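Incident review: delayed structure delivery

Summary: a single-chain prediction request sat in the queue longer than the usual turnaround. Root cause was a stuck worker, restarted by the on-call engineer. No data loss occurred. The affected request and its eventual output are reproduced below so the record is complete for anyone auditing the incident later.

Affected input:
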Amino acid sequence: MNNLMINSGEGSLFPMDSDKTISELVNRKDQAEREGKPDFYYFDDLDMLHYFLYRETNLNKKANRSKRTIREYEKELHIMIKQLLENGPQMHLDITIVDNSLFKSLEKRHLRRYQKWVAEESPHVQKRGSYSPATLERKTVIWKSFFSFLFKNGYIQKPIHEELLTVSVRAEDRPNRDLGPREVMQLLDYFEEQNQHISFALIHVLVSTGMRNEELCRLTVADVQYDSILGYYYLSVTGKGNKRRDIPLKEKVLESILRYRKARFRPVSFPNNSGEPLFVTSTGRAFTPDGLAHYLKRAIKEVDLPFVRSGHIKITAHVFRHSFAIISHINKADIFSIMKALGHEDIHTTMIYLQKVLNREQHVIHQWSSDSLGKYI
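Output delivered after worker restart:
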């Protein structure tokens, strides 16, 4: 029986064979073509999964999926397959195995029931409550992408992905991630007064550059570069799709970086061609995105400020990216400039960051004249 059908114990559900490279799978695909067979004639479920995750889609290697995206897709598909195999009876899936393949055995009703089960009855829902609409949207996008790939390439014969319901994320469903300059300054003041140079610098850099936390984690010392024409330092940042953008560093932000490195016993002068991580952990290694998120979460949890204690705003590393957009808008930057600074491909994504601020700012009451309600307005 296919490995996907029998390996449902602890550990990795579909451990990738390190010796099985994409080039070997491509050779197998080429062999099928030479023999006049379907492209994926010599592939099983594991091969298709591996090929979907790691195949190249662009001749420019830097434009292919990032390692982080691949890990995210791999993790989500791992969970899906494990749950289909182990929790099938709870979902009343009644799967009839075809060609020793889980993927070829699935029908539209199976994906429909699985999506509903994840949203309403899965262990996560029972223990922690419902998933957020944004999380369900992300999961559904990955499922649809994978099964659409299998169908379009002829590995499965039915467009079962079409049965998955669309998950609409309304503006009111999105978590409150609005920290304005006042709250950010209070946080920075707190960490500065406590001489917590590490937390101070991480927040200072994130809010002053608008970087994603994974972008900060990838920075090396060599990424702090000097523009001799304009006369200032900047960060050369690698974003999604391995696209690079330059982010100017204000003098005080550069000072925070130097102070951070001094606190970690990694003093350095810039520019410097060292490939060492710019922001190292206490063990001297680069932060992982999850590690950075957990570090800041723990640090902020201890902050004694009203807006932190209230819990109304879930303050994560990503919140400071929103703050960058909000502060830029307050300082009269146009939406397009903010979009480019954040490394967004779609201006609608930038609008999501600013939607709540814009809605309040553009409320009709601001057009009332001072005598609309006399002394009461």
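Verification: The chain has two domains: 3-173, 181-361.
Action items: add queue-age alerting; document worker restart procedure.
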